[in-house]
Here is the input.
Amino acid sequence: MKKKVRIIPGFGLTMGVTLAILSIVVLIPLASLVVFTAKLSFSDILEVITRKRVLASFRVSLLTAFIASAVNAVMGVVLAWVLVRYDFPFKRLLDGLIELPFALPTAVAGISLTSLYADTGFMGKLFARFGIRIAYTRLGIIIALIFIGIPFVVRTVQPVLEKLDPLYEEAAGILGASRGQIFRRVILPELRPAIFTGFGLAFGRCLGEYGSVVFIAGNKPFETEITPLMIMSELQEYDYSSATAIALVMLAAAFLILFLVNLIQIRNAKILKGGH
Amino acid sequence: MAQSAGGQVVSREGTGQIHENTRGSKAVKLLLIGLSVVFLVIMLVLPLITVITESLKKGFAEYAASVTDEDTKSAVQLTLQATVFAVVINTVFGLCAAWAVTRFHFRGKKLLVTLIDLPVTVSPIIAGLIYVLTFGRQSAIFPFLEEHGLEVVYAVPGIILATVFVTFPFISRELIPVLETIGTDEEEAAAMMGAGGFTIFRRITFPHIRWALLYGVVLCAARAMGEFGAVSVLSGHLRGKTVTLPLHVEILFGDNKFMPAFAVSSILVVFAVIILIVRSVVEYIGRVKKNVH
Here is the structure.
């Protein structure tokens, strides 16, 4: 065993500060969740999470988050491709704009999208002509979640695409592959882990999203009630046990997604390193 | 830079005629750019424009009245307070955590990094719930808090804690990759020559992480200002006391006061646009510096 000598100073100080702040902000609150959960009986938790209204909210959340993330996966690849491979005026502006959903408060996005897609709004009027209502339906939730999820896939695919050596595409071209074939057989396999990572991150974010959705959703029970809203309404009735039970399901889902994303990311890191 | 130039050079010299369908690719290019622009305009630009047009619907005087309203002023104050707390605490934490994680080997490092990232992976509503369980009435430490007159839930400290929580990893996450790439050689050399910890940090490490740190601070401030879900759980919506800007927007919108809601939102939009500009500048400077290397 080689004994490591620490030449750089500051381990005690930085580790101490890190652990102290981490304990106050994350560990103690998390521990209190565990303590509170331990007080609940399993059958109580089961009773809460199998209520029809709660189950319906799971369905609404999963469905809308999935569709929105799928749309973002496709558009994310297109956007990343356009930003990396093409040059055109205002490209930098477009690139900067992608980050808007991170910068714009969710509540502002929520009210803005609601008035845009309401029957009297600019976009709402357009769709109303075809008899499609967007605000206060699941379509509205999907629109809000697409807004929230835009940066994820773009920002995971962009670096991979930048490192991708065009030589392989040239080689495939020389060997007579069509552009469609090159994309499907050469480029897409390289991008796939990044796309799934971005999809997973967006999906996780969409499942937990609250601010932008509550305004446009209309929040009709069984129809447009998302799971975070269920937790919120339990909290407003001071029913902490029910709120915690539903939260546990959401946490389990979030960790599962995170675990899968990490698995993919390990593979992605290999591609990023080896692609050069 | 190298990769895009490389591709074009190869296709222009000699092998250029390989794609006989280059004209097709031009159409594809225009189609994809058009699709991207339409998508971003509808999804991102329109909502931004809506905030501005709706807030000015009844004229500038009405707009000014809603923005300078007493409730708005107190909301601005509380939002700034929470943001400053979040930025300061997370900067101190981010610097320390990044230093500890990248400069030393210790057991449980992976676990530590996972725990730091945890706050952004949980729903903001769950973040709020966790703090209610920790500091609320049914909590074990509630009697202690009450005895000392400390109100957390439905009070300002709760809002600040929630804001710190949801922005927790934002700065350390920017710093860790940068510190990892620059390695420890320079710092080790400085330490061997007898430099103290703070001197090493100030003279060697800090110049490397300046831009990453600034970017992290900007991200943290952006998210802190706009946090809605977690703050909503902990606020109790006491007008003039525990209402931040996003909550004020929610209350106004819920009362069908659409114009004032958008007017207050426009304050947050201004901040958001500033943040986007700073981000672009920071990224640009980072890229220029990398190319100089």
